[in-house]
What we know:
alpha+beta; six-stranded antiparallel beta sheet; five-stranded antiparallel beta sheet; 15 strands; globular
Amino acid sequence: MKIVEKYWKSLKDSFVAAFLNRKSFALWGLLALFLNFVMLHGHGFDSDMEFWRRWIQSLQMGVGNFTGDYPPLYILWLRVVAWFYQISNLSLDLEYELKQYCLFPVILAHIWLVHFVWLRLQNRKWNDSVKTVVMLIAVANPAFYLDGPVWGQVDILPVTICVWALWYAARPRTFALGMGLFMLGLLTKFQMIMFLPVFGALALRYRKIMWQGILSAALVFGIVFLPFILAGNFSKEFSQAYLSSVGQYPYAAMNAGNLWMALVGNMTPDSRPLFEWMPAFMNPGLLGKILFVLVSVAVLVKTFLKRLNMGQLMMMAALNALAFFMLLPCMHERYGLAAAVMCIGGVACQKTPRLNAAMILSGVAFVNIAMMMSIRGTDLWFWISVAGIIAMVYFFVVNICPEAFERICGKLRKIPLPGIIAPLALVLVYGVDVGNTLAKVERSAYKLKSGETFVYDLKLISQTQGYGSTNIGKSVDNNPLHVNGSLFIAGIGTHAPSRHVYELPENATRFTVSCGVDDESGNGVIEFIILLDDREVWRSGTMEGRQIASADISVEGGKRLSLVTDELGSKNFDHADWVNPIVYTKD
């Protein structure tokens, strides 16, 4: 028995030592590969998979007629995938196989990023446990797997290219190679423009050899676009991938937990003022661009004036990527991943480990992506946005004025905190939360009086709607009714176009109701109409998110009451709520 125990201990120690052995990358790379292939079995969005299917079918005829709005480098890979499907006759309906082939460069990029981190740790005189944690953050980061193999997105690919690009661009001898790789990143995903202030500062610093970087970038641009040029499709592909994408989604936030999600909510037009009483220019579209430019200028100036080491350079790039996600309008939930990837690369390049930065940004990226993939609930968006804002402020202060931050932290560390503070805080948070919930429900729950009836308790003659099913007391997406930030307990959740016809009692006198686009949508555009015996008696006019209208009409002598919603063109996100719909009767 002792021999078996001794053998088992030896085997276990040798296995662990192999992972911790900094002389071999093999097992770390195999672990990343294994986890990626396991996560490929996760179910992504069918609509996103449909993009790959449609593009692959189009590319089977070559790149000459391709009409997708994606940069050229990844499209060239999909052309290879299309060729494979042509010769193998495999069905494009198989999701796992489709993701497996389409995401080959993504999985390779993840391994490439892990290798970058592993190489940098070779020269770090850190504790082995710290190095292991850094490697695990790079290898087993849940945000990477949720975005890539589970969902089927490619975001880690262009950022990893930019990590290596920054590593080379920071050195005069390899500056041209770095700028060529940066162009490669831009040709993979246009959002890599977020790193331009750092690369621009390096170009200004090495202005005597700037021409080499420009020549290298131009060469990469020409090589990648060459198949499209030969196919006569260069101008269309360039326009679709870059020019037409600007202003394609005119919303403050598209499922992104950033500053604008916290201030105005999801899918709100970026041209609308923050508050109705503000001037028109005080909108997320303009303010977001101004704020981002200010951060970018600060990053560029510090990168140019200060001789930052590699770790600091990558942290500045991560800061600008985080500001790109948190401040600009029209951000998608996935775009925060770039800051996490660059930050992990920066941690591995620092003289002293700053694991908190990598964990915080990885957490911000994860919760944003998880809100679309696994964690659901519109109320979470506000708190996720607040957490992201705090992370951005922290990251800005730490990187722009680290000395002042350390002085403040030094003073805070001297403040004694009793051990019981956490349980007390828990009790306080629950007390406040419960009180707020009770107050919210009390304000929103309408108590029927004598002679009052909710319209949906009457006999329903007929109902139709453009999408989903009608819900009583909940929205069309089965969430609590929220209109203009207010919760409502009683109401009808539907989707325009819709028509609900109810039979009125003979002694009905009045009908009152409030209506609006549910906050879960934000960018729906609807008109609410009330008909009495097929005769229009009230019309709301055009209604958008964060608006609410009320009606108080006479229904005496009427037999049928119709609640109608008009989608006004597109019916996308037209989540319509009729709240507190009350029919009054006389004795």
